[in-house]
Design a protein that fits this description.
Radius of gyration: 35 Å
Family: Belongs to the ParB family.
Strand order of the largest sheet: 1-5-3-4-2
Oligomer: single chain
Shape: rod-shaped
Number of helices: 13
Low-confidence stretches: 1-39
InterPro entries: Chromosome_partition/occlusion (IPR050336), HTH_ParB/Spo0J (IPR041468), ParB/RepB/Spo0J (IPR004437), ParB/Sulfiredoxin_sf (IPR036086), ParB_dimer_C (IPR057240), ParB_N (IPR003115)
Protein name: ParB/RepB/Spo0J family partition protein
CATH class of one domain: Alpha Beta
CATH architecture of one domain: Alpha-Beta Complex
Keywords: Chromosome partition, DNA-binding
């Protein structure tokens, strides 16, 4: 199987990659692609490395791999060989650490491949984390939660600001912010996003809801009723409007209480019923002090020092 891998594993795809890295001139047949075979692999070269010598990247942001997709890729590799090399860094004699390509490495092991082509690069831990994240975002379609967790790690461990992170991954700051806000959602909602039961569009609608109980209510409505993103956004607006109306009702109730107290105090002062009439939301209005006779009017005027 290893012999078959050496013969067919490179192909035209790797030839194109070789041209990009200026390592050599790609030929039309895979046997003519120059491949380094020295145990001490110089940085930037491409080598056949035994899979048993490659350890998993501890900074790998991907945590879930679709088993069916892995089996399909494994079958393809078994027949066609590995077209796209993985990327590693050398950490000792015949010891390598994966930078990117864990899915390809796993599928190659399933196919029984004993050695695979790999780029050998020099990278420190920060570069390892950045390179693994960027490579996976571009090629492996991480779910939104994995991306958010990776962004958070880069900010915390690489001391990057959101704008700097956006530059690294070619995304604007608002996009980075929206991903990071996903991590503030309740765990059950994060799990649904991770498992593909909730789209990023649904998630963006939910992160605009402040209260956890309302987020969970809308989430259950989305799942149980199969709401589209547009319907979910509409539900969010309705919930927010109900909240605003409730708050306004509380404010009005407080204002009415204050006016009632003023009316009661004035009624006590003038020994007659007093009415406050509001004529606008800005506080304009009038005070009505009724009287029963001229004598009653004179009494009230005396109290007003008229």
């Amino acid at each position: 199987m290893a012999a078959l891998q050496r013969k067919t594993g490179l192909g035209k795809g790797l030839g194109a990659l070789l041209q990009q890295d200026d390592i050599g001139t790609a030929k039309s047949t895979p046997t003519e692609v120059p491949v380094a075979k020295s145990p001490a692999s110089p940085a930037g070269s491409i080598n056949f490395i035994k899979v048993e010598q490659i350890s998993i990247n501890p900074f790998q942001p991907r945590t879930d791999f679709d088993e069916q997709a892995l089996r399909e890729l494994s079958e393809s590799i078994e027949i066609q060989g590995l077209i796209q090399p993985i990327t590693v860094r050398q950490v000792g004699k015949n010891e390598y650490q994966l930078i990117s390509g864990e899915r390809r490495l796993r599928a190659s092991k399933l196919a029984g491949i004993t050695e695979i082509p790999a780029y050998v690069r020099t990278a420190n831990d920060q570069q390892m984390l950045e390179m693994a994240l960027i490579e996976n975002i571009q090629r492996e379609n991480l779910n939104a939660i994995e991306i958010a967790l990776s962004f958070q790690r880069m900010i915390e461990e690489c001391s990057l600001k959101q704008e700097e992170l956006g530059d690294r991954v070619s995304k604007n700051r608002s996009t980075v912010t929206n991903y990071l806000r996903l991590l503030k959602l309740p765990p059950v909602i994060q799990a649904a996003i991770r498992d593909g039961d909730l789209t990023m569009g649904h998630a963006r609608a939910l992160i605009n809801v402040g209260e956890v109980d309302k987020q969970l209510f809308i989430f259950r409505e989305i799942v149980e009723k199969g709401l589209s993103v547009r319907k979910a956004e509409q539900l969010v607006r309705e919930v927010q409007q109900a909240k605003d109306k409730k708050q306004k009702g509380k404010q009005d109730a407080g204002l009415n209480f204050q006016f009632q107290k003023i009316e009661d105090d004035l009624a006590s002062k003038f020994a007659t019923r007093v009415k406050l009439n509001l004529k606008s939301a800005k506080g304009k209005g009038a005070i009505e002090i009724p009287f029963d006779s001229e004598d009653d009017l004179s009494r009230i005027l005396e109290l007003l020092d008229w």
